[in-house]
Amino acid sequence: MLTVENVTFMAGKRVLVKDVSFAVHPGEILVVLGANGAGKSSLMRLLSGEKEPSAGTIHLSGKLLNSYTAKELALKRAMMNQQNIINLDFLALEVVQMGRYPHYRNQPTPHDWDIINQVMTVTGISHLSERSFLTLSGGEQQRVHLARVLAQIWDTPEALLLLDEPVSGMDIQYQQQTLALAAMLAKKGFMVITILHDINLAAQYADNILMLKNGRKWYHGAPSEILNTKSIYDVFETEADVFTNPHTLQQLIMPKNITHQILEINLKTITT
Ligand SMILES: Nc1ncnc2c1ncn2[C@@H]1O[C@H](COP(=O)(O)OP(=O)(O)OP(=O)(O)O)[C@@H](O)[C@H]1O
Predict the structure, then answer these.
(1) Nearest C-alpha to atom 31 of ligand 1 is from which residue?
(2) Which residue ranges run through the membrane (predicted)?
(3) Contact 93, 129 (CB under 8 A)
């Protein structure tokens, strides 16, 4: 279980995360939503142990997150960052292999290779294994990074999987596959926390949603409880219609067309 209690994070005098509390249980997929600059990535950096809270505590499996050694943490949580920059000329296979580094000494064992092959299959990148990472498209690179992160924790159920905008560069097929995979891992006992910008994907795949605004927890609960016109306006300052999909009973969010507002602004600029 992951327990976040009254966590605040400051960079200098700037408050990026303010007094946030929530818990995630094994088997749960939590989606973090919020406007640009709301503090989502800052929160993820705290949950991964990359940054320490300025106040409050984070416990992973009952132990204070910051008391884990780097090696222990590498076996208990994996994080896919928003920007994964690799400038060296590695093969896609070598990038995925990096995810297994914490598990072996000199060479990957047959078990490690088995996992590397499995994660490359489920992320649809087996055919890219001998390609130079630098020559891959944005969406392909993202899937290679996802495979690398999955390789790290694939054989550790109850591990914490942190995904910061994992599907942003992916086409609709891989968006669905990636989130279905995350949901499947949650069902196997992993704790999955993912930042998404697409509220419809959140409605489709989240067990719970955490909506942040100005670094604070604004809403937290099941999609059916918290996704509505008011919460979307509160958090995104955007008017949207929220329907219920008659087949799945999940929310469908349709932002209102605001072309007329933009035209008004442009018109004013042009005529002054
Ligand atoms: N080191 C820092 N020093 C000062 N301000 C920072 C620092 N890091 C982030 N910020 C600011 O804190 C706010 C939250 O940033 P964060 O990256 O967590 O937002 P986010 O919700 O992930 O946004 P996005 O959706 O655009 O990725 C932003 O306004 C950002 O400019």
Answers:
(1) 37
(2) none
(3) yes
Integer Cα distance of 125 and 127 in angstroms:
5
The pTM of this model reads 0.94
Residues with CB under 6 A from ligand 1: 11, 14, 16, 34, 36-42
Q: Contact, 178 vs 167, CB < 8 A?
A: yes
Assign 154 to helix, strand or coil: coil
Residues 24, 1 contacting (CB under 8 angstroms):
yes
Q: How confident is the model at residue 197 (pLDDT cuts 50, 70, 90)?
A: very high
- Determine the Cα–Cα distance for residues 247 and 128; give it in Å rounded to an integer: 37
pLDDT at residue 51, rounded to an integer: 96
Question: Which atom in ligand 1 lies closest to the alpha carbon of residue 82?
Answer: 27
Burial class (CB in 10 A: 0-12, 13-18, 19+), 139: middle
